[in-house]
Amino acid sequence: MKEKILRFNLEEDSDPAQSGVSYNRWIPNDNPFNAELGVQSAVWSTGIRNNQGFAYNPITGKLYGSSHGPHSDDEINIIERAKNYGHPVVIGFAADENYMNSGAGKPSSSLPVITSEVANKDTIGPSYQDPIHTAYASDQAEINYIYNGNVSNNGLWPSEGWSGLDIDTSTVIPGAKNSLLAASLKWGRVMRLKLSEDGSSIINIDGTSDTASYFGSRNRFRDLAVAPDGRSWFVVIDRSETTSGPTSANPIVPACGGCVQKYTFLGYKRSMAPGANEKSTIPTTIPVAMGTPNTIHHTRTFAINSASMNDTVWVPFNGPDGNIVAEVKAKMNGTTANNLGNVSVSYYRHSGPVREDAQKKLYLNRNITINFQNTPTQPMSVRLYFTKAELDALIPALNSAGTGSGITDISTMVVRQHNGAIGASLTGETVAITPVIREEFGANQSYVLQLLLEPPFSNQYSFFLGNPNSTLPVNLLNFKGSYQDAGNVLLQWSTINEENSREFEIQRGVDGTNFTAIGTLSTRGSGANKTDYTHRDLNIADQAGNTLYYRLRIIDNDGKFKYSNTITVNIPFEPGKVVVMPNPVVGSAPVKAYITSSVNTRVKWSIVDNSGRAVLESSMTVRPGSNTLDINASGLNAGIYYLVVRGEGIDQRVRIQKL
What we know:
Blueprint: E1 3-6, E2 43-48, E3 51-57, E4 62-67, E5 75-78, H1 117-124, E6 133-134, H2 140-150, E7 162-168, E8 179-184, E9 189-194, E10 212-215, E11 221-226, E12 232-237, E13 260-264, E14 296-298, E15 302-304, E16 315-318, E17 324-329, E18 341-349, E19 355-356, E20 362-372, E21 380-387, H3 388-394, E22 414-418, E23 431-433, E24 437-441, E25 446-453, E26 460-466, E27 475-483, E28 489-496, E29 501-509, E30 516-522, E31 531-537, E32 547-556, E33 561-563, E34 567-570, E35 578-580, E36 591-597, E37 601-609, E38 614-622, E39 625-631, E40 639-647, E41 650-658
Antiparallel strand pairs: 1-2, 3-4, 4-5, 5-6, 7-8, 8-9, 9-10, 11-12, 12-13, 14-18, 15-18, 16-17, 17-21, 18-20, 19-20, 20-26, 21-25, 22-23, 22-26, 24-25, 27-28, 28-31, 29-30, 29-32, 32-33, 32-34, 35-36, 36-39, 37-38, 37-40, 40-41
């Protein structure tokens, strides 16, 4: 059987009836096969085996159809005027010659003997049209073997049994914009096929694979549709237990026969890594969003809260091309999820020379702004994506004074954050944030930085990527730190090309912004030789919080200096600890205490003088984790005092010196 595509008017036209036949009025006058004698034909195109799904793209004006192959080569065709798609003498692509009868007689079905698909294509002539995609265009020998009746069980045929077809034009799911979605009767899944920009061909999703598969079930998907918002896909499940894979000898009972199933995209789950150091689980085949350079682009707005069921997953934000810009996760492990309300992301790509700020510090030619309807109240995470080409341009760049960027590779990238709106350049004050993850994304074609956002919070974050420090006087190959079982931190770094450098000053901080020197090491390298250094920080017991920040101040012989990148070291949680910083307390500065608790509880605190008299006292509620207590000590005289903190799981007495 050779199916045809028919085209009719939706309303009658003014054609007169001919010889008592009135159907001419329902047939368009410009149909391709209308006869000159006034007998019109509804046929629009021919040579299709059994088209089961259609999808129309109003942007490109293209109509797509999905149909089964007889054994393999299920086809996706662009349905066009007067085209012949070859069935039954050409199956799939003509040039692959993978349907040929190699023995006497006919194949196992009613299909004709095919001696050459290429010859049959030539016989059809200029009207012949290849499909834009064929599933499992296997090698000639395999298909010939099946075609000649050697495999009667259709469950073993390399086919999908496509039924319904739709097109996704939204930017909700990374990489899915401008993709055809084909439902599978045979495998109970949805296949996504990425269209070229003009919609005339299928492009590889990851350079090797032409489809992506979703779900996979016992069900036979008879039809599907994409919701207008792009977040949900609907599939209609067949009641049948046989055909297109299952057979009467091997029936498969649908898990939800006759149902309409809704699948809604919420985001990406966390990786197996715990805490803040989760790896991105976006498929690495997804490109980073580009868009028109020197233009501010805005993503779609999404509500992120418990009502939207996405406050515990990574919610992606994509550019107009449907590719990734950033991700937002409203809840960290062990904390309460933020109700962020409506969240939107904007980004800007600069196409000129690498940009510099007012202090001549260079930064990446991409900046990203995230806007929250509701200001966060709990720690949360974001991911920022950028391209390898953008980093490659920043590394060797020089500013207007001839100074470099301070970036040697992805490990030296720092994020500069301020609370202004999206713009074409960096203006105003920034706070340096050290990413918890810096890594390649997508076979070294792009990168991702993951940030932990902590108090004080804002409802708008603008991120500029670079390093607020200038070029290092030595080539720092690496800088890393690790917590040791003995209760100390081991810092390690390596260098080459140590010319005119004097020493390293090792600095520690508890907030990533304010640092204190904890030791020095003299440089001892020369020329191109690699030199390794180590330093142990033995004084971490009285440090606030469970994350310590380290950097190197690299000092030249002439006293000039530059800073390394900042690294973080996580310290095991120690409930019941109380730390006062800075200590001694100078002048009217407040006493700042950090209290670590394992539970929600109420604690009492007091400042006690040397005689044991309480000169200040109060109470506060603490939550699990690190808590900050600010005490106004401006009225205290110089001397020695003690901060006493008592509550469930906490009983500490800390000596304080007031200067």
